[in-house]
Amino acid sequence: MSNTDIVKSAYDAFGRADIPALVDLLDESVEWTAPMTLPQGGQFSGKDQVVQFFQGIGAAWESLSVQLEASGAISDDLVVAVVTGSGELRSGGRASYGATHVFTVRGGKITRFREYTDLDKALAG
């Protein structure tokens, strides 16, 4: 499976709400970063903390859909994806944002995730 396929598998698992399948794609010492402008933002190290990131999504969002617009490998171990996130915040109201996700994939596992968002203002959470 190519690195791009691994990343697409992660999005597919998230779309099915199959977080255990997504976590299986991660390296044990994965580094995961999402901006604090998102209600689930923060820095997370290791699989257990990444599970906490996804729990943060569940705590902040009634529903969240991530639409993959485009993805591709830009080097041997980097895959970039352009996405749109949209859904209903538990605090009330619809919210959406654009983002670029940068994945480092080595040895068939995601070792690093960085999210860069395109927001006019911070999302409430």
Task: Describe the protein's architecture and organization.
The protein is of the alpha+beta class and 125 residues long. The chain has one domain (3-118): Nuclear Transport Factor 2, Chain: A (Roll), CATH 3.10.450. Helices cover 27% and strands 49% of the residues. The protein has three helices and six strands; from the N terminus they run H-H-E-E-H-E-E-E-E. Strands 2-1-6-5-4-3 form a six-stranded mixed beta sheet. A hairpin with a 4-residue loop joins strand 4 and strand 5. The radius of gyration is 14 Å and the shape is globular. The termini are far apart. The relative contact order is 0.22.
Mean pLDDT: 94
**How much helix, percentage-wise, in residues?**
25-40%
| Structure summary, number of beta strands | 6
Number of helices: 3
CA-based gyration radius:
14 Å
Largest sheet: 6 strands, mixed
Distance between the ends: 37 Å
Low-confidence stretches: none
In CATH terms, what is the fold-level topology? Nuclear Transport Factor 2, Chain: A
Q: Strands of the biggest beta sheet: in what spatial order?
A: 2-1-6-5-4-3
CATH class: Alpha Beta
The succession of helices and strands, N to C, reads HHEEHEEEE
Overall structural domain count? 1
Annotated CATH architecture: Roll
